[in-house]
Write a structure and sequence with these properties.
Blueprint (H helix, E strand, L loop, with lengths): L1 H7 L9 H14 L4 H11 L1
Amino acid sequence: MDLAMRIVGARSLFQKSPLQCYYRDVHAGLHNPPMDDTVLMQLGARV
């Protein structure tokens, strides 16, 4: 994702850019991952 942002440049930070949304969502997920037990329960429920 960081490489895509570098390739596109400053235009990737525009609010209407899909890259800006993806970048924000991916990085937010890295800082707020679901708890391990929650993930295991969700995976178990799907199986």
